[in-house]
From TrEMBL:
Name of the protein described by the UniProt record: Mitochondrial inner membrane protease ATP23
Highest taxon in the source lineage: Eukaryota
Keywords carried by this UniProt record: Hydrolase, Metal-binding, Metalloprotease, Protease
Assigned EC number: 3.4.24.-
Residue ranges of coiled coil: none
PANTHER family: MITOCHONDRIAL INNER MEMBRANE PROTEASE, MITOCHONDRIAL INNER MEMBRANE PROTEASE ATP23 HOMOLOG
Annotated Gene Ontology cellular component terms: mitochondrion
Source organism (scientific name): Vidua chalybeata
Chain residue ranges for the region called Disordered: 1-23
Pfam families: Peptidase_M76
Taxonomic lineage from the root: Eukaryota, Metazoa, Chordata, Craniata, Vertebrata
MF terms in GO: metal ion binding; metalloendopeptidase activity
Family: Belongs to the peptidase M76 family.
One GO biological process term: mitochondrial proton-transporting ATP synthase complex assembly
Length: 245
């Protein structure tokens, strides 16, 4: 699974090679293997209700999410709320994930408590969904493909804005945004794949330049909501510009 905001879990005990090879991060999303609960049962859980309300607000008002939803639709991958989003309980170290096997975004209702966090996680996972739609991404076997999408998600979702980095007590000047993107991409890979840190770092470094500079569908790095709104307007006007060429 693609991953949202995460801290890498503690190192797991070594198991058989076959089990290691088949672990694609689903251990972090235990509700993926459970039978769906009835609406009545789910409605009794405050976390689930709050998650659904915050998700709806994000999809209706957040410029990052609105741009990505429109880009997905234009790419032939229309997103439907009930079909492509699922609020679930997750492991304590993750906030969300993209399940490529079902083309579904998982939102960790027990870990997302604030609207700003929901905005960021939905945007992050919609970038994974956009990459899944437009390219033949081998999420499960090619760590470079995963690394590329994680770089793009960290770069374009607002994960590495100045305010978020200050909240993490991380400061820097020249090249700090690139450093943040690289670090968060590596952390995301380590959270959902049983690979060494060296393997994750190598994969990120080998594709970093190309994937960091791939700004689709934003056309720019949106460092703020204002940037995202401008990117959204530019995206809506693309057809008008090309029609006049």
């Amino acid at each position: 699974m693609g991953e949202g905001e995460a801290d890498p879990p503690p190192p797991a005990e070594k198991k058989g090679a076959e089990e290691e090879e088949e672990d694609f991060g689903y251990r972090l999303f235990p509700d993926r293997n459970k039978k769906p609960q009835s609406f009545l049962v789910r409605s009794l859980f405050t976390f689930h209700n709050k998650c659904q309300l915050m998700l709806r607000l994000t999809l209706e008002t957040n410029p990052y999410a609105r741009l990505l939803l429109e880009a997905l639709k234009q790419s032939g991958c229309t997103v439907f709320n009930d079909r492509h989003f699922s609020c679930e309980n997750c492991d304590g170290c993750v906030s969300g994930g993209f399940d490529a096997a079902t083309s579904q975004i998982v939102l960790c209702q027990n870990n997302i408590r604030q609207q700003s966090h929901m905005n960021r996680v939905v945007t992050h996972e919609l970038i994974h969904a956009f990459d899944h739609c437009r390219a033949h991404v081998d999420w499960f076997k090619n760590v470079k493909h995963l690394a590329c999408s994680e770089i793009r998600a960290a770069n374009l979702s607002g994960d590495c804005t100045l305010m978020n980095e200050i909240a993490r007590f991380k400061f820097g000047l020249k090249g700090h945004h690139q450093t943040c993107v690289r670090d968060r991409a590596i952390r995301s890979i380590l959270a959902v794949r049983k690979v060494s840190k060296e393997t994750a770092e190598k994969a990120v470094d080998e594709v970093f330049d190309a994937c960091f500079n791939d700004l689709e569908p934003f056309g720019r790095i949106p460092h703020s909501k204002a940037d995202a709104k401008r990117a959204y307007r530019d995206f809506q006007n693309r057809d008008r510009y090309t029609a006049n060429l």
